[in-house]
Design brief:
mainly alpha, 2 helices, G protein-coupled receptor binding
Length: about 70
Amino acid sequence: RGCEDPKVTRAKFFIRDEFLRISTATGDGKHYCYPHFTCAVDTENIRRVFNDCRDIIQRMHLKQYELL
């Protein structure tokens, strides 16, 4: 990670920022974006991604049934 090419780092953050910008553009709180830079063999990062997916699904259901 410390030896990553600066162009790769800029590209990663550009893509992340675009997803964040698009997901919040409406301002209605209906879209969520949990950006992660991960590698499929890094089990801790994959666990974080799955936890965030679960959080998104739970929020959708709570809003659907007006509990949030």
